[in-house]
Amino acid sequence: MRLHPIVWWLRRVADREDVIPLAFPITTKSGEQISSIPIKKGTPIDIHIDAYNRWAFLRTILIWDA
Question: What is the tens place of the pLDDT at every residue in 4-61?
C-alpha cells in the first residue's frame, strides 16, 4: 500500500453514460434514498488516489495501539 502516492488525484472524463453503485444507500438533503449515482457522458470525474485505503490503515494502527 502506498501512503504517499506520486500523483494525488487523477481527472478523467466519462466517455459514455454509466452508473456508479454505492456500497450503502444514502439519503439526500431532499430525503430521497439513492443506491447508485448516474454519470452522464462528458462528466469530469476526480479520482483521489491519496484517500484510498486510508481508513483501513488508520483502523489497523488504532487496533494495534489500543
Answer: 667 778 899 999 999 999 888 999 899 999 999 999 999 999 887 776 666 665 555 5
Q: To 5 degrees, how large is the angle CA 36–CA 43–CA 14?
A: 85
C-alpha cell at 48: 483521489
Q: For the whole model, what pTM was predicted?
A: 0.56
Distance between terminal CA atoms of the chain?
Answer: 22
Q: What is the 3-state secondary structure (H, E, C) of the chain?
A: CCCCCCCCEEEEECCCCEEEEEEEEEECCCCCEEEEEEECCCCEEEEEHHHCCHHHHHHHHHHHHC
